[in-house]
Structures are given as C-alpha cells and as structure tokens.
Amino acid sequence: MKYAINTNCLMEQFSTIDIVRMAGKLGFDGIEWGLPEKDYKQAAKDMVKASSDYGLKIAGFLNAGHLWKENLMRSYSEAVAGTGAGYLRVTAPWVAFNYDESLHQKQSFNELFAICRNGLDKLVELGSEYGIKYVIETHMGGLCASPVIGKMLLDGLDPNHVGLLYDPGNGVVEGFIRPRLAIEIMGSYLASIHAKNLRHVWTGLIRKDGPVRAGWSYEISLLDSGYVDWAEMMFAAKVCNFNGWISMEEFFKPEPEKMLKDGLDFLKQCEKESPSGPQSPFSTFND
Questions:
Q1: What is the number of H-type helices and E-type strands within the chain?
Q2: Rounded distance, CA 95 to CA 97, Å?
Q3: Going by C-beta distance under 8 Å and a sequence separation of 6 or more, which residues neighbour residue 2?
Q4: How distant is the alpha carbon of residue 70 from its chain centre?
Q5: What is the DSSP string of 155-176?
Q6: Are 135 and 165 in contact (CB under 8 A)?
Q7: How far is 14 from 16, CA to CA, in rounded Å?
Q8: 8 A C-beta contact, residue 102 and residue 96
Q9: Predicted TM-score of the model (pTM)
Q10: Cα separation, 61 vs 66, whole angstroms
Q11: Cα(14)–Cα(53) distance, rounded to whole angstroms?
Q12: Pairwise CA distance, residues 33 & 11, whole Å
C-alpha cells in the first residue's frame, strides 16, 4: 500500500511547507491535498512544488465542487492537469444526512441519480481531454453513501477517468457493507481508500416535532477504537489486489504528529499481519 495524509483538517493550523515536512519526517509516501475554495489554481501550483521539493507524491486533490457543473469542472481540471496527481475528488449530489434533511429534500433518489450520471458521462470526456481521473467519495448523506450505489453510478464508464474514493468510516453512519464485499463490488473503479474510524454515540430521545425518536450521533475515533476493523480492511484490500493509496483523514487531533505516526504504524502492522487470501477451513454455508 501507499500511505498519504489528507490535509483538509491540517491546513487549519499548518502551512503547506509544514505539512510536507511532517509527512516526510513521519515516513508517508504522499499527500492528498485539499484545495481551497478560492485561488485554487495558485494553491495547486504551490502544493505541487512543495510535494516535489520534499520527494512526496500527490495521491490526489480534493474539494473540486459539484460534478455536474461543467464550467466549474473545467476550471478545476485546468488547475490540476499535468500535476501527476492520481485523482481529483468531485462532489456528488447531496441527499439527506438525517430525518430532518430528508423531510425537506424535494428531489427523489432517481432524479438525483440522473443528474449525477449525466455529469459523470461528461467527466469521462473531460478526463480524456485533460488526462484526469475524477472520483466521488462514499459519503453519508450524499447520493453515493454506499459502494453499491457507487458501482451503479459508474457502471459502464471508463475507470481510467472516473472512480470511487472508498471511506469505510463514513459507512459507520450510512452505507456500510463488509470491506471485502465493498472492494469486490467497486472493482476497477476503486481509486483510493480513506483511513479514519467512527463510533456511534447515544444522545437521548428526541421529543420534538412529531413522534418520539431515538437520538444517535457519531464521533471520530482513533483507527483502532472505532467500528471499522482495519485488519479486516487490509485483508479485503489484499484479497482484491488493491495496492493503491490509503489516505489518513480527521482522526489526528489534538496531536497531529504523534497521532499520525501512531496511525501509520498501526495500519502498516495491519497490512503486514493480515492474510492475503481466504483461510481454511472454508465456510460450507453455500454448499
């Protein structure tokens, strides 16, 4: 596997140079750069130079906006074309994060699916023009909360230019299926994996606006203390011959350097110790 740092949280307190220095010091292979909303073209140039100066690869760029907005997609494509980045993450339509949001979502899944698929069709053409692979993330609340929906969205499109960024931590909230099944379903569309972990938190009964409902939230946890089993994740990646980028995201507050180092050591241990194929005795359930 190749290991990267997602910078979306880090850039709140560290400069571009500080991030690449830390990544190099800790032994990461690359950076997954979060582009700012403004001046992203200049930011991309600065990120490319900093990565190159410290011998780090660019796993990908994030935060490119709504994938169905053609002019916006072309502008972001111009910003990252020729940088050697593995992918550019774009945003699928938002559906609903919870009951309250679903209550006010007037568009159906099928309507949003059509918007997204039409946008992806055009991105394949744009990707061919600029030499870019666009990815959408499996994200709770979004149209592509599940790897299954992701495969439905991309099915039949060129995996050289569109793909999926698999975030099993997000699946704790919505869309979780067993990691091996998820990676097998995504197949050649799997471009990268986000590494974080989440766990559910009981917040009490909700007693307003209608019937009483159960209140649940979630919190980000360290990699070894949430719902996602990273030993199982590494096993799934090996079984499916995935050897791409794993990018660490969000769990490294309040001590980024220490927590990133501990997280990298943990993932490498999981990778080393997980088997590379199914083990006997094999299940006879389906015999």
A1: 9, 10
A2: 7
A3: 29, 30, 57, 59, 243, 244, 245, 246
A4: 22
A5: TTS-TTTEEEEE-TTGGGTTT-
A6: yes
A7: 7
A8: yes
A9: 0.96
A10: 14
A11: 17
A12: 9
Amino acid sitting at position 218: Y
- 2-273, what's its fold? TIM Barrel (3.20.20)
What would the DSSP string read from start to end of 124-147? HHHHHHHT--EEEE--TTBTT-SH
Those residues whose C-beta lies under 8 Å from the C-beta of residue 5, and which sit 6 or more positions away, are 19, 22, 23, 28, 31, 32, 247, 248, 260
Q: Which of 57, 53, 58 is closest to 34 using CA atoms?
A: 58
Reference 95, options 148, 134, 149; nearest CA is 149
CA pair distance 253, 47, nearest whole angstrom? 22
Per-residue pLDDT in tens (0 to 9) along the chain, 287 residues: 999 999 999 998 999 999 999 999 999 999 999 999 999 999 999 999 999 999 999 999 999 999 999 999 999 999 999 999 999 999 999 999 999 999 999 999 999 999 999 999 999 999 999 999 999 999 999 999 999 999 999 999 999 999 999 999 999 999 999 999 999 999 999 999 999 999 999 999 999 878 899 999 999 999 999 999 999 999 999 999 999 999 999 999 899 999 999 999 999 999 999 999 999 999 999 99
Q: What distances in angstroms separate CA 286 from CA 182, 214, 278, 283, one per listed residue?
A: 20, 37, 15, 8
Sequence ranges of the domains in the chain: 2-273
d(C-alpha 240, C-alpha 177), whole Å: 15
Whether the CB-CB separation of 8 and 62 falls below 8 Å is answered with yes
